[in-house]
Amino acid sequence: MIALIDYGAGNLTSVRKALTALGANFATPARPEECPRFSALIVPGVGNFASTAALVGPWRDAIAETVRRGTPLFGICLGMQWLFEGSDEAPDVPGLGVLEGRVTRLRGDAEAGLKIPHVGWNALKFRGPTPRGADLSGPRSRMLAGLDDGAHVYFTHSYAAPITEACVAATTHGDTFASVVERGNVFGVQFHPEKSSDAGLQIIRNFLEVTRTLPAAATRAEAEC
Amino acid sequence: MLTKRIIACMDVRDGQVVKGVQFQQLRHAGDPAELAQRYNVEGIDEVVVLDITATLESRQALAKTISAVAHRIFLPLTVGGGIRKEGDAAAAVDAGADKVSLNTAALNNPTLISTLARRYGSQAVIVAIDAKRRGNGFAVYVRSGTSDAARDAVEWAREAESRGAGEILLTSMDRDGTRSGFDCDMTAAVANAVNIPVIASGGAGDLDHFYDVFTHGRADAALAASIFHYDDTSVSELKKYLNGRNIPVRM
């Protein structure tokens, strides 16, 4: 069972619909203490980083503890930004901090027609070891399995995460930013996979596959539920 | 690189897609969910559902239509027509809309733009502007194009942006349904005046009309209805054409 964290940042209808279409079992935990019972966590979110303030405190602690135990975590859009240390959009609100770096505002370039917010379909440029990358010595990106380098996905955001070692795909809109991050069992996408047609569904499917292939976490969840 | 979006619009009345010429003479074009699915397969980037009657009864039917469309496609879905207050927008969002498009209500009550932008984020709020050429300017009309709003499209687009709109959907009433091409001058005038994306609408009839509005018209997205509905032009054919002319599109 996957926990879909609802902290009031935007509408979860689309994410629920995509998970349902892909056959995922999921629920929305009412209290933070329930988090460790789940086999995976999804933190969605649309809007201002300030709305993640609702997670500060018990939710943040419970999610951090659950992730420390190896449970997969998937942040979508604002949920991905929250994985970092914080954001210039709401400097006083701490992120989860499982990934290093801070989220900053995209600069855009009105003269060149690069408007902010960055709205629309843009390309994922794979970085480092990928399913098709030249370097096969490192870990392969599980989130990008089955996707082509250059695949287009749907973005709508004004702030973005920096390129760090966790970045497995980057996107350029004036600035180049991390559009897919992956480290251990922590995953994040800046775009909306639930709005990105086949490419987006493939990424959600990849995350579900990760949760299925972690028998220890899944078994523990069954036992405690 | 951010691609130019191709958006299919479905004008819906009583649960069926219809399309008129210059806002009149409606004819039927099929089931919205089926059409949306066909567009998805062909590679459409986004879908808009416009409730063109927007009576109380049709709004209840609209929720069913939105839900049916939202369950068939995993693409951004915008709903417009008859959204007059926060509750109407909430009903559309709850039914599966990602964005709402405000027209008459935004002019009558501009604070609705900021109210919805605060609740759902600017990315969820589109201000739709229907305009006609008048002298050197572009006159805004409301109530499905029947009433002169006594505003200029460029100035109103700027205000909508400042109030929190995330995109402008600009329809040329002179060109709507005529298939004579988008009004590129009007589109460029608005696109140059705001920093949010502008969706051009009204007049699509041929492949090169899209090329023109993305270049000369400086549009970020182009919306069409009838040319896609009746199989005259498929979305995939349009995208191949644009790609061949170096317009970035999602293939």
What does this structure look like?
The complex is a heterodimer of chains A (225) and B (251). With 225 residues, chain A is an alpha/beta fold. Chain A has one domain: Class I glutamine amidotransferase (GATase) domain (Rossmann fold, 3-Layer(aba) Sandwich). Helix content of chain A is 22%, strand content 24%. Chain A contains five helices and 13 strands. In chain A, helix 1 (13-21) links the parallel strand 1 and strand 2. The model of chain A has no long low-confidence stretch (mean pLDDT 89). With 251 residues, chain B is α/β, with parallel strands linked by helices. Chain B has one domain (5-244): TIM Barrel (Alpha-Beta Barrel). Chain B contains ten helices and twelve strands. Chain B has helices at 32-42, 56-70, 86-95, 104-108, 111-120, 153-162, 184-193, 207-215, 226-229, 235-244, and strands at residues 5-13, 16-21, 24-30, 46-51, 77-80, 99-102, 125-134, 137-142, 147-152, 167-172, 198-201, 221-224. Chain B has an eight-stranded parallel barrel with strand order 1-4-5-6-7-10-11-12, surrounded by seven helices. In chain B, a hairpin with a 2-residue loop joins strand 7 (125-134) and strand 8. The relative contact order of chain B is 0.15. The mean pLDDT of chain B is 90. The chains are: A alpha/beta (225), B alpha/beta (251). The A-B interface holds A 10-11, 13-14, 17-18, 21, 46-48, 108, 110, 113-123, 152, 154, 156-157, 172-173, 192, 194-197, 200-201 and B 1-5, 40, 45, 70-71, 73-76, 93-96, 98, 120-124, 166-167, 195-197, 218, 220-221, 250-251.
Radius of gyration of chain B: 16 Å
Number of helices of chain B: 10
CATH-defined superfamily of chain B: Aldolase class I
The level-1 CATH class of chain A:
Alpha Beta
How many E strands of chain A?
Answer: 13
Outline of the structure:
The complex is a heterodimer of chains A (225) and B (251). Chain A is of the alpha/beta class and 225 residues long. Chain A has a single domain, classed as Class I glutamine amidotransferase (GATase) domain (Rossmann fold), CATH 3.40.50.880.
